[in-house]
């Protein structure tokens, strides 16, 4: 049931994403192509899940994507592939597989650079100040771009200190009754929790003492009906018996928009506000990010990055405390820095300094490639979603043909990004066979030891 709901969101995104193919005779014809592509994508996904191990599943998905020819299929299935790429820690590849262009549009508010009263602030500070008197804070994310999860992870401690005590995340499964007792997510905890940053979000909330709840629709509802069911679940599970609760929500894309028409009806946030009478602080994080090509970036994003060269996420706030947002229906928008890659991985994986890079050589793979290297907290079970994952492969996916010969001459290396603490490292091959194990400790200064 839940995957059907997630897929419905994927289809909606592709329908309304700017730049529909010129050869489509009409929107209805394009929609028909997408529905066929979605059915095909689902069949491939079900086949992939029969493979033993995440790496083999991803390889099956990638092979189907590379061999695809139809434009609608590549658009729809590119999002599926991007999810798997985030699961294995291949974040730059995920951005290449699926990246929604963000053009300037008529309903955009004027650029904050055009108004001298707006001042750029670290988003962590701006949002903490804006949330002080709020009952609820809603963050959104782009499912294929986990950079949009990093600020939320960083904000959890600040909001907990301000009295927020309940956390809800889209596509958590209500069926995982032992999540709070266990203290970490597993493959049975949710859909996007398979991705390590999302899992770290849930894990961090649990460690900080948040009451973590699931609010996803449990029926086959789609569109407005799904939004309404989500809102009812959210309100009842957060506030029934907890009238004084203060709520933090992580949701996808425009589920948090507070005005306008969404999927032919209203968004989850609009339904929630109507049911609860609570006006949430809505934090938009999906529009002002770096894409796989600069011409896909919003013009405001490019102007802010070129002028301010941010190294942390930014929000603009007037001197009177009024925040700036790109679109009506959101309280504040976040500008994320451009990606900086180190050994092929984005440095935003450091989560604003909460984690440090740990160098991984190809020795862990025992000359068997590709191999998946995972780091799990030492006090968590083998069923835990890892703190971080990466794939070591002499010829990584999506690499240009001109680079292939050079890459085969070098040993693959990478960085895992880890908080201070003890970890179990495991390397597995394409056949899910364990290639090596290692125990390490990350010290508070970022250095490591066996």
Structure commentary:
The chain is built from 13 helices and 17 strands. Helix 10 (223-239) packs across helix 11 (268-276). The chain has three domains: 19-97, no CATH class; 112-333, Rossmann fold; 355-449, Immunoglobulin-like. The termini are far apart. The chain has helices spanning 2-16, 27-48, 54-66, 71-87, 91-97, 123-130, 147-161, 179-182, 196-207, 223-239, 268-276, 299-308, 401-407; strands at residues 118-122, 136-141, 166-169, 211-214, 247-252, 281-284, 314-318, 332-333, 341-342, 345-346, 356-360, 371-377, 388-392, 414-418, 421-429, 434-442, 448-449. A six-stranded parallel β-sheet has the order 4-3-5-2-6-8, sandwiched between helices. It has a five-stranded antiparallel β-sheet with strand order 13-12-15-16-17, with no helix packed on it. It is of the alpha/beta class and 450 residues long.
Keywords for this structure?
450 residues; alpha/beta; Rossmann fold; Immunoglobulin-like; 6-stranded parallel sheet; 17 strands; disordered N terminus
Low-confidence stretches: 1-5, 7-22
Indicate the mean pLDDT: 92
CATH class of the largest domain: Alpha Beta
Total strands: the figure is: 17
- Given helix and strand content, the structural type is alpha/beta
Percent helix range: 25-40%
* Overall body shape: globular
Work out the helix count: 13
What CATH architecture of the largest domain would you give? 3-Layer(aba) Sandwich
């Amino acid at each position: 049931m839940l995957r059907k709901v997630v897929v419905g969101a994927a289809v909606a995104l592709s329908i309304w994403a700017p730049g529909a193919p010129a050869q489509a005779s009409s929107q209805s014809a394009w929609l028909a192509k997408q529905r066929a592509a979605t059915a095909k994508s689902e069949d491939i996904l079900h086949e992939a899940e029969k493979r033993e191990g995440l790496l083999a599943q991803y390889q099956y998905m990638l092979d189907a994507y590379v061999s695809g020819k139809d434009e609608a299929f590549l658009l729809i299935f590119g999002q599926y592939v991007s999810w798997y790429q985030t699961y294995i820690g291949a974040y730059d590849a995920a951005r290449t597989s699926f990246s929604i262009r963000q053009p300037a549009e008529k309903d955009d508010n004027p650029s904050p650079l055009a108004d001298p009263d707006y001042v750029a602030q670290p988003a962590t500070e701006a949002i903490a100040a804006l949330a002080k008197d709020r009952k609820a804070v809603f963050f959104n994310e782009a499912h294929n771009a986990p950079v949009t999860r990093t600020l939320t992870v960083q904000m959890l401690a600040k909001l907990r200190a301000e009295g927020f005590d309940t956390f809800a995340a889209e596509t958590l499964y209500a069926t995982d009754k032992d999540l709070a007792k266990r203290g970490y997510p597993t493959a049975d905890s949710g859909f996007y929790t398979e991705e390590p940053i999302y899992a770290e979000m849930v894990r961090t909330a649990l460690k900080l003492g948040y009451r973590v709840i699931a609010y996803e629709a449990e029926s086959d509802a789609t569109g407005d009906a799904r939004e309404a069911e989500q809102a009812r679940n959210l309100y009842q599970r957060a506030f029934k018996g907890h009238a004084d609760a203060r709520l933090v929500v992580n949701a996808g894309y425009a589920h948090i928009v507070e005005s306008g028409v969404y999927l032919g009806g209203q968004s989850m946030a609009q339904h929630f506000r109507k049911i609860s009478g609570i006006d949430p602080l809505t934090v938009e994080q999906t529009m002002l990010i770096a894409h796989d090509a600069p011409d896909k970036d919003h013009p405001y994003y490019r102007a802010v990055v070129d002028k301010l060269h941010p190294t942390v996420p930014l929000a603009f706030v007037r001197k009177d405390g009024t925040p700036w947002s790109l679109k009506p229906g959101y309280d504040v928008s976040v500008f994320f820095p451009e990606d900086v890659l180190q050994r092929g991985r984005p440095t935003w994986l450091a989560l604003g300094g909460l984690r440090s890079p740990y160098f991984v050589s190809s020795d862990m793979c025992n000359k068997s490639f590709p191999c998946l290297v995972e780091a799990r907290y030492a006090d968590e079970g083998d069923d835990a979603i890892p703190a971080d994952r990466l794939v070591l492969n002499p010829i990584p996916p999506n690499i240009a043909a001109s680079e292939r010969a050079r890459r085969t001459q070098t040993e693959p290396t990478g960085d895992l990004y880890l908080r201070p603490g003890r970890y179990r490292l495991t390397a597995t091959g394409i056949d899910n066979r364990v290639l090596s194990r290692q125990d390490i400790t990350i010290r508070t200064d970022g250095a490591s030891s066996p």
